[in-house]
């Protein structure tokens, strides 16, 4: 009977995932999410748990003293088909840490393009769940993702890790995912905005450019716009979502430059649109326009400097892969109660003026486990 009930529940989930994938829309306002600082104020016990996991991530691997009875199963669904190497490095660092911890595992990995492949992601999620993993690593950017995740949470298994999200969803506080992991989009955008606005002397015209209108683009762009809005000398003249198409970002940048030849800044909310906009600036000889990257992966660091990107928020990338592996180890040791709700890795501002030796130091730290997987 229990087996039949499981089949019925899974069939209902499959139908729900299909319905979620075909229902579009933009994820709710940023007020639907709880900022990291606010979350810790509501849950002060989390501060010590987050500090403990951060210490584990920064420290060396401590292998299990007793081999586990079976391999853990991990399903990963990543929007990794993009210029940023963030997702590929996260996967490589998670696997490297699992091996260092002597934790045997089986892994199924599903790749897709961000935003535009929601139907494919729904099919991948159905296939992953039919495999019955112990852990599911997924992300949250659009309304369809939201509905898919809610149906997984309703099942109670597998343990759900939401990556690239460090702001818990308010409506899930009573039934949260196992772990939110990644890097704080607001913190990174604040680092970028502080530098760019100062360089522009707090005046001039600017545009914002997002890969999509989903959670990530909105959190990053809204933070920049909010900081710029404190200065009356700054004017936003365009707000563009590329709808998952870097070529659209390139074309819209050209149009904005033509309409506003006195453009001062472009805030780019992702690697793909930053590189597309940079191409437009180079072709029009408008390298006087300030432009940022976001993430500080290999492609951005190569483009950073005179005639290229001016600034980026560099994630200490491999931290989130290590954090996922360490959280799984804690569960295996019966320490699930010590796993925090959120892990937010370190972010460092890097500019066109940062000395090369400093960048190399940061790369060694950020890519300490994933460097061998770097495909540029």
UniProtKB/TrEMBL annotation:
Pfam families in the cross-refs: Peripla_BP_4
Positions of the Periplasmic binding protein domain: 74-335
Cross-referenced Gene3D superfamilies: 3.40.50.2300
Predominant subcellular localization, coarse grouping: other
Subcellular localization, as worded in the UniProt entry: Cell envelope
Tree of life domain: Bacteria
Matches recorded under SUPFAM superfamilies: Periplasmic binding protein-like I (SSF53822)
Keywords assigned: Signal
Family per record: Belongs to the bacterial solute-binding protein 2 family.
PANTHER family referenced in this protein's UniProt entry, alphabetically: D-ALLOSE-BINDING PERIPLASMIC PROTEIN-RELATED
Identification of the protein by name: Autoinducer 2-binding periplasmic protein LuxP
Organism: Halomonas halophila
């Amino acid at each position: 009977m229990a087996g039949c009930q499981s089949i019925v529940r899974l069939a209902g989930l499959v139908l729900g995932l299909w319905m979620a994938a075909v229902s579009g829309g933009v994820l709710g306002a940023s007020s639907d999410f709880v900022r990291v600082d606010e979350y810790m104020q509501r849950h002060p016990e989390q501060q010590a748990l987050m500090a403990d996991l951060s210490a584990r991530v920064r420290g060396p691997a401590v292998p299990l003293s007793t081999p586990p009875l079976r391999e853990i199963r991990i399903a990963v669904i990543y929007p990794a088909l993009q210029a940023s190497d963030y997702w590929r490095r996260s996967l490589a660092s998670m696997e490297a840490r699992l091996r260092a911890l002597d934790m045997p595992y089986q892994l199924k990995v599903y790749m897709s393009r961000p935003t535009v492949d929601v139907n494919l992601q729904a099919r991948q999620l159905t296939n992953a769940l039919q495999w019955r993993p112990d852990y599911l690593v997924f992300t949250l950017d659009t309304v369809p993702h939201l509905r898919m995740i809610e149906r997984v949470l309703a099942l109670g298994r597998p343990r759900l890790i939401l990556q690239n999200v460090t702001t818990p969803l308010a409506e899930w506080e009573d039934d949260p995912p196992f772990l939110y992991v990644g890097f704080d989009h607001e913190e990174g955008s604040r680092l970028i905005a502080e530098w760019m606005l100062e360089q522009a002397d707090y005046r001039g015209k600017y545009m914002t450019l997002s890969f999509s209108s989903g959670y990530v683009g909105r959190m990053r762009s809204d933070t920049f716009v909010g900081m710029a809005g404190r200065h009356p000398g700054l004017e936003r003249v365009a707000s563009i979502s590329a709808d998952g198409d870097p070529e659209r970002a390139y074309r819209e940048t050209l149009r904005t430059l033509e309409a506003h030849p006195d453009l001062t800044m472009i805030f780019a909310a992702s690697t793909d649109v930053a590189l597309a906009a940079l191409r437009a600036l180079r072709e029009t000889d408008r390298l006087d326009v300030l432009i940022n990257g976001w993430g500080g992966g290999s492609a951005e660091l190569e483009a950073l400097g005179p005639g290229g990107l001016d600034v980026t928020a560099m994630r200490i990338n491999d931290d989130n892969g290590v954090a996922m592996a360490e959280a799984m180890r804690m569960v295996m040791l019966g320490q699930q109660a010590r796993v925090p709700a959120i892990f937010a890795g370190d972010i460092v501002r890097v500019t066109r003026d940062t000395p090369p030796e400093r960048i190399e130091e940061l790369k060694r730290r950020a890519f300490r486990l994933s460097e061998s997987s770097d495909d540029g």
